[in-house]
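Model the whole thing, not chain by chain.
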Amino acid sequence: MYAIDLKGITKIYKGGVEALKGISLQVQEGDFYALLGPNGAGKSTTIGIISSLVNKSAGKVTVFGYDLDTQLEQAKSQIGLVPQEFNFNQFEPPLQILVNQAGYYGIKRKEALVRAEKYLKQLDLWEKRDQPSRELSGGMKRRLMIARALMHEPRLLILDEPTAGVDIEVRRSMWEFLQLINQQGVTIILTTHYLEEAEMLCRNIGIIDKGRLVENTSMKSLLGRLGTETFILDVDPPTHLPSSDAFSIKQTDEVTLEVEIDKAQSLNKVFSELSAQGIRVNSMRNKANRLEELFIELVEKGAKNV
Amino acid sequence: MFNPSYLVALKSIWRKETNRFLRIWVQTLVPPVITMSLYFVIFGNLIGSRIGQMNGFDYMSFIVPGLIMMSVITNSYSNVASSFFSAKFQRNVEELLVAPVPNYVIIWGYIGGGVTRGLMVGFMVTCVSLFFVDLHIFNMFILILSVLCTSVLFSIGGLLNAIFAKTFDDISIIPTFVLTPLTYLGGVFYSINLLPEFWQSVSHFNPVFYMINAFRYGFLGVADVSLVWSFSVITAFIVGLYSLVAILLSKGIGIRS
């Protein structure tokens, strides 16, 4: 079953700006899906339409089979939304925000308090439950919005740049939490500007540019399109820059080499050539910008086609 | 069919709204009580004693119902107007818009908050008035019905104002330039029988006049126009404004892009 099924969605804002130009997109139940695109591409508008904050101009949206036009309340019940901007009442404490939100979904106060405790504890906010939420740090506010979105235990969680502006430690703990709830069966749609985040978390990916879906495929197949792969090697200080006819190599600092090899080539060949030139490799890692390269390529291609 | 979960949602909105004005009670509950106390002292005691009687009652007894009603009107209105506009401004209205809550539950939830504050302030002002006048209640049913209907009507008015408002100025313009003149000219301080015939006719176009008229009847048992006509006008305004608000919300005007 599709968690969401968009057919020919268009959005024309007042003033004639065409934000979406007939987007069709399906996300399977249980998926962890990345929706990427440059600023102003139409990601937030798409999310706004799915979560019924934005009125679409044309097209059809179904959420777990519920039509947004005819079964709005059933469709809304399936979705938990974590928006890009902080949109809770900054004067209310986290516990009150969560209990109120549960109430809007028809969850009685007694049950709401139990759920609020569970999610506030899971997201490390329990100690701050009675503090005015304006006093929370940026990372805490982001986690509060995730807790709020989960209060009615939705089948689909939509996160619009959930880790924007949070430090790497908090970001990683949020990734772990999102992976956990995805494993528990919650479908997740994520927009982000951190391509490393999308690459690490998501199984499938859609790229929106200028209101059009320019790519919709699995992360694996998208990354598989890269003809080459770049590795970073930590080495003992080399006496000279090694040379090779088989692959491109450059020295980024005294003890680091960057090697770009063709997908068809074997890594063994790299090691044997470097070894033959007296270079000792201490460790190796993949350069984590593979998706970034593809993203830029796709968006640039789109720009040329317009 | 009414879904029981809507009742939970309605209670949640009402509780949130009530908590909001109770949290800031110094801004919401105290000022109207102080203002009305000044009215009682200045207009009732000092000036009123020189005015004599109005419609057969001493001036203080005559103006007390109007002043209570004035505080109910302004507090019901401003509670909903400022709360809903703040929710739009801070975007936490989105919490409601993404939830499976029908528009009528949202409307009645906000009305519930406005009515609670209006009645709470009205009760406090009534208590203060007891220091100045010996209050007698002529008809409790009419009294409660009129204050309830008025509070509902002006809560809807506040919601309508907040839906259209784009800045904080927009939610103070209507109370200043429309609500206050209507209230002052609605017969709080005088019987419209004192006015020249032309202005008496003009007063009949003022909805606040009918509310104060019905409320005063509840206290004193005297009215400038019939109660049936008063309640018909109030009901018509409630139905009209409610329908307008319901249509606006269903089209997403002022709340959805």
